[in-house]
Design brief:
The chain is α+β, with helices and mostly antiparallel strands. The strands form 6 sheets. Strands 14, 15, 16, 17 and 18 form a 5-stranded antiparallel β-sheet that branches. Helix 7 (121-135) crosses helix 16. It starts with 10 loop residues before the first helix and ends with a helix.
Length: 645
């Protein structure tokens, strides 16, 4: 793992690399290791063998991205690898792999690492394509609903099924759907619509209902099907190409308007004004009773079918050309006139893909993706369901103390208590539906728990994360915490290496940044005259318009904050043109020769060096504590092999 071999990095650099660990690992191509290398022992630490394959793997992965000054040659890299294995041995002897901070963080990384292995792209893509194809077509359907609680007992379930079946039989035998709907349907809206739902498209209905609608031919009555609301049948009245979306502006006069005139008379007067050339937006602002849209000239958000009441929607989609307005029409809310602003045809698959993908992954269809994943991976296990035991209880609560086995995966048994824990907070689902989801979920969990035993690629990557986090815990203990708390040791280290921490030639200076050349020339003249920065700003800046900004302080020779080519010296510099609207002038008031830095001035640099020193001393102690035995033959073979690459 790349981050493990930066043994001389600063603490914050190491943390930053750990935060990016997931991205780095997933982008790395796994290098196949030749079978004959896997069994060769490269070296051992107190008798514990380290094989060629492990070193080859990490070397191949890191050789092109390890910082150059840390990877001088094969031998340096090999020594880093040995040091790394020594540190891990000590970490495990100290049981750092059992502390809560380590186990908690590792669990988070594992969950992230597993995610790519839980994807089912084929199923997802299939659902996205299905949704798009359905978006291109709208269905007009009438339905009958026999309500039933999701956790209904078998007797009630059978009663509901027999009722919906009876209704369908009468329709198939010739009775009109509308009349049977009024008698049998328990959907309250049947009183006003005879069960007709109008036109709808993908994502407008719950997925099982949508499937039945698109899976039934025009003119046919579906077989009974179940959703969380109960049992349904539906009749397909029509199918048509989707008109997409439309945006309109509207004017509404309420039937209960406080204006003395009749609502119909008012809307007719408004229509006459529009025919005479009146501005729709202005009239809407003045006279529409829909105050929310009136403020915007009557403009409504774009909408598709199924979003508005049917009569309103029909008029909107019947308007042909942008700018056309309708004759007055009535709904239960009042009288309306609509103006067509724009039509939006269904976007292409590519344009609509991100939106469809999000809906598929985050909506009810996601359970179908999960189910297809479970169906795929369950084939690799000994898997037995005990659905008969499900009939012993009519509610989820009945399983709270049940020890009856409900599922077996390999040698792991799941009983009623496991089912209760999973299902206790799930509402509006039948026990059978929840049980199916429970089985799928347990299969996926079992797969996740055992992935490092069944997938070599994942096992290797996961081991790298384990080692990386373990090293992090050890470095905190052995280096970082010591360096932060040992102020005396830090001071002694600084004194012993004082000559390393020196300032170059420095200047106490003022930097002026200007936006225009003529302003820069004025600023330079004023600086030469000894004007203060406050006085110069008053003379150069024009109210809220800023032409010059100043910064002051001490800078070393060669600082990146100084213009390219500028030589640090006392006095006012020439004008340096950075670009067409950035001009710089420097005034140096005093020069300082090279001198030693104080500890506060260079604490960060000293701290980093002190940490490196502590780590070097620690590694030397590990080399003495543990016996490293090298297989010279294998080492030379690898060195020759990789020195040529």
């Amino acid at each position: 793992m790349t981050v493990l071999f930066y043994s001389k990095s600063k603490r914050n650099q190491f943390k930053m690399r750990l935060n990016k660990l997931v991205i780095i690992i997933l982008l790395i191509v796994f290098i196949p290791v030749r079978a004959q290398d896997e069994e060769k022992i490269l070296f051992s630490i107190d008798g514990e063998s380290v094989y060629n394959s492990e070193f080859i793997r990490v070397f191949e992965k890191n050789k092109d991205i390890v910082v150059e000054d840390e990877q001088k040659d094969f031998e340096d890299y090999f020594n880093l690898f040995v040091d790394f294995k020594l540190k891990l041995k000590q970490a495990r002897e100290l049981s750092l792999d059992t502390i809560s901070s380590y186990t908690t963080e590792l669990a988070k990384y594992r969950e992230q690492l597993i995610q790519p292995y839980l994807q089912n792209p084929e199923a997802t893509e299939s659902l996205i394509m299905e949704a798009y194809e359905r978006t291109l077509q709208e269905v007009n359907a009438s339905h009958i609903l026999v309500r039933m609680e999701p956790d209904a007992i078998p007797a009630d379930t059978l009663k509901a099924f027999l009722k919906i079946t009876e209704a369908r039989t009468k329709i198939v035998q010739g009775a009109s759907f509308d009349s049977i709907a009024r008698i049998y349907s328990e959907d309250p809206s049947v009183k006003t619509n005879n069960g007709n739902l109008g036109y709808f498209s993908a994502f407008s209905m719950v997925y099982p209902f949508e499937n039945a609608a698109y899976g039934t031919q025009k003119g046919d009555v579906s077989k009974p099907f179940r959703t969380r609301f109960g049992y349904h049948i539906l009749k397909i009245n029509d199918k048509r190409d989707s008109p997409g979306e439309v945006q309109v502006a509207h004017i509404m006069v309420k039937k209960d308007s406080t204006v003395l005139k009749d609502a119909k008379d008012q809307i007719d007067e408004i229509y006459l004004k529009l025919e005479e050339g009146g501005d729709f937006g202005s009239i809407a602002k003045e006279q529409s009773d829909d105050y929310g849209s009136a403020r915007k000239g009557g403009v409504l958000a774009k909408f598709g079918t199924g979003r508005m009441i049917k009569s309103f929607e029909d008029v909107a989609f019947d308007l042909k050309d942008e700018g056309d307005f309708s004759r007055p029409f009535e709904t239960q809310y009042g009288w309306h006139i609509l103006k067509l602003l724009k039509k939006y045809p269904v976007p292409s698959y590519e344009e609509l893909y991100p939106k469809l993908e999000s809906k598929v992954k985050n909506g009810s269809r996601s359970s179908y993706v999960e189910r297809s994943l479970a169906e795929r991976i369950v084939q690799d296990y000994r898997y037995v369901t005990y659905k008969n035991n499900l009939q012993k209880h009519h509610t989820i609560d009945g399983f709270e103390q049940s020890e009856d086995t409900l599922l077996r995966i390999e040698d792991k048994l799941y009983d009623g208590r496991d089912f209760y824990v999973y299902a206790k907070d799930i509402k509006q689902r039948t026990i059978e539906e929840v049980y199916d989801d429970f089985c799928n979920n347990m299969v996926i969990n079992y797969y996740k728990e055992n992935l490092d035993k069944t997938n070599k690629e994942f096992a290797l990557t996961y081991q790298e994360y384990k080692d990386g986090l373990l090293l992090f815990e050890l470095l905190q203990r052995e280096v970082w915490q010591r360096s932060e708390t040992d102020s005396l040791g830090l001071q002694e280290f600084f004194e012993a290496n004082r000559s390393k921490y020196t300032w170059k030639k420095r200047g106490s200076l003022v930097i002026a940044s200007c936006t225009r050349k003529e302003k820069a020339e004025l600023v330079r003249n004023l600086l030469n005259q000894g004007e203060s920065t406050a006085s110069i700003k008053d003379k150069v800046n024009e109210g809220a318009t800023i032409h010059v900004l100043f910064s002051e302080g001490k800078l070393e020779e060669g600082s990146s904050k100084l213009p390219k080519g500028y030589v640090l010296k006392e006095g006012v510099s020439e004008i340096y043109e950075e670009n067409e609207d950035n001009f710089t002038i420097i005034r140096v008031d005093h020069m300082f020769g090279p001198q030693w830095k104080t500890l506060p001035e260079t604490r960060g640099e000293v701290m980093n060096d002190y940490q490196n020193y502590l780590e070097d001393q620690w590694v030397k102690a590990l080399r003495k504590k543990y016996q490293v035995k090298l297989n010279q033959k294998n080492y030379k073979e690898l060195k020759n092999r990789f020195s040529k690459s």
